[in-house]
Amino acid sequence: MAKIKLVPLGDRVVVDPIEQEEMTASGIVLPETAKEKPQRGKVMAAGPGKLVEGERVPMDVKVGDVVIFDKWGGKEIKIDDVKYMIINESDILAKLAD
């Protein structure tokens, strides 16, 4: 796994979206521009957790986890020609079990 030059703050995580080719029932492949944002990705970096009453609440996800996230959550960024998403932990809906 490549190490990225980005350290998220608080309860944010950096996710490498997993693009999924989409095809209609009739076999037409949808172009990237017609698809919604990916909802699955691999956690590349995780912040230290949210501060609640002066105490850090540990994150439920860690680097390497594959997560399902809200399609409207987060911000897309580009580092070294690679697209990543920075999302709040609260936008993560689930993680895939090992």
Q: How does this model look, in words?
A:
The chain is mainly β and 98 residues long. It has a single domain (12-95), classed as GroES chaperonin (10 Kd Chaperonin, Protein Cpn10, Chain O), CATH 2.30.33. It contains no helices and eight strands. The protein has strands spanning 12-17, 40-46, 50-52, 55-57, 66-69, 75-79, 82-88, 92-95. A six-stranded antiparallel β-sheet has the order 6-7-1-2-5-8, with no helix packed on it. A two-stranded antiparallel sheet has the order 3-4. A hairpin with a 2-residue loop joins strand 6 (75-79) and strand 7. The radius of gyration is 15 Å and the shape is globular. The model has no long low-confidence stretch (mean pLDDT 84).
Helicity, as a percent range:
under 10%
Could you tell me the strand content as a percent range? 35-45%
Name the CATH superfamily classification: GroES chaperonin
Distance between the termini: 17 Å
Indicate the overall shape: globular
User: What would CATH call the class?
Assistant: Mainly Beta
Would you give the CATH topology? 10 Kd Chaperonin, Protein Cpn10, Chain O
Q: What is the CATH-assigned architecture?
A: Roll
